[in-house]
Design a protein that fits this description.
Family: Belongs to the TerC family.
Largest sheet: 3 strands, antiparallel
Number of strands: 3
Oligomer: single chain
Subcellular location: Membrane
Helix content: 55-70%
Structural class: mainly alpha
Order of helices and strands: HHHHHHEEHHHHHE
Number of helices: 11
Transmembrane segments: 6-22, 34-56, 76-99, 111-133, 139-156, 202-226, 232-252, 264-282, 288-307
Shape: globular
Region (Disordered): 310-333
Radius of gyration: 21 Å
Keywords: Membrane, Transmembrane, Transmembrane helix
């Protein structure tokens, strides 16, 4: 329990430093800054694999699945890479959401910060229930396997569908609860106009991103449970991947067109993990094979995206719309 408390405390410190020190003042995250932060988060996450090895070798965490230190470290890295790769799909959706609600680039980090803070809480709850289901009902692994194969199929066909956040059920429900302003008002999520508390586009984008992340978690949590059912490994790899999502967004959202083939890599990864779950009781897949499939799939998707020329010359939505300028309403206190 002490290790869990220390890990969560470390995450809280990271988040406090992020918003309270390094990003205290709203500013546009440039590619150079995003690359530095992405490198830092990936280094921290991969470096944590050494901590995992030490914790399991010293018996400092519960080990319900009887993992050796080396196997625990390998499962952690594999789980982290799965979560990181599936987070790439989030970037495409976040870019569309920001563009649809015309969120100025200067305020996008603030929205993502609070969105990811909520995602940590929701994913923690989902991991607890997911691990409990796996341990209590052995057959649930087949349900997860079929679900991941279906998700891979949906992702393969996703290019035929257009996601419009303003037509989503979430947006319609938010408008029923709160009046929604048409423009941003600084970095405020709510403003008071003529005595009425109204939500700004920043709050609407935050809610849509939050709910979208929960939908993505329905894919990613079963995927990592195919690698390990150890609660600490699932939670730590998942959370550290989420923490790097913001900087990853600012790094690759401006290059979405260059990564147009990455979805096929995610389809391969999800299909592989789904099949692994379906045949878990018949075939034991060594962890190095799982890790190799993930790395090769991602590398192939990135290389083919970079090397293939863009024949359409079209542009995907950028990381945000233009700042339409603040209205002269009084921010809600």
């Amino acid at each position: 329990m002490l290790i869990w408390v220390l890990f969560i405390a470390l995450i809280v410190i990271f988040l406090a430093l992020d918003l309270g020190v390094f990003n205290k003042t709203d500013h546009i995250i440039r590619s150079k800054e995003a690359a530095a932060w992405t490198s830092l988060w990936v280094s921290v996450a991969l470096g944590f694999s050494g901590v995992v090895y030490w914790l399991f070798s010293e018996g400092m965490v519960d080990n319900p699945t009887g993992l050796t230190p080396g196997n625990a470290m390998l499962k952690y890295i594999t789980g982290y890479l799965i979560e990181l790769s599936l987070s790439i799909d989030n970037v495409f959706v976040i870019a569309v959401i920001f563009s649809s609600f015309s969120i100025p680039p200067i305020y996008q980090h603030r929205v993502l910060f609070w969105g990811i803070l909520g995602a940590i809480v929701f994913r923690g709850i989902m991991i607890i229930f997911g691990v409990a289901l796996i341990n209590k009902f052995d057959w649930i692994i087949y349900v997860f396997g079929v679900f991941l194969l279906y998700t891979a199929y949906k992702m393969l066909r996703s290019h035929e569908q257009e996601f419009d956040p303003k037509k989503s059920l979430v947006f319609r429900q938010v408008k029923r609860i709160f009046p929604v302003t048409s423009r941003t008002h600084g970095h405020d999520f709510f403003i008071r106009r003529m005595g009425i508390r109204a939500a700004t586009p920043l709050f609407v984008a935050l809610v849509v991103i939050e709910l979208t992340d929960i939908l993505f978690a329905l894919d990613s949590i079963p995927a990592i449970l195919a690698i390990t059912a150890d609660p600490f490994l699932v939670f730590s790899s998942n959370i550290l991947a989420i923490l790097g999502l913001r900087s990853m967004y600012f790094l690759i959202s401006r290059m979405l067109q260059k990564f147009r083939h990455i979805n096929y890599s995610l389809v391969v990864i999800l299909a592989f993990v789904g099949l692994k779950m379906l045949f878990a009781h018949q075939v034991e897949v060594p962890e190095w094979i799982s890790l190799s499939v993930i790395v090769v799939s991602l590398a192939t998707g990135i290389l083919t995206s970079v090397l293939t020329s863009d024949k359409t010359n079209g542009e995907l939505p950028g990381p945000g719309g233009e700042d339409s300028g603040p209205e002269k309403d009084q921010p809600a206190g």
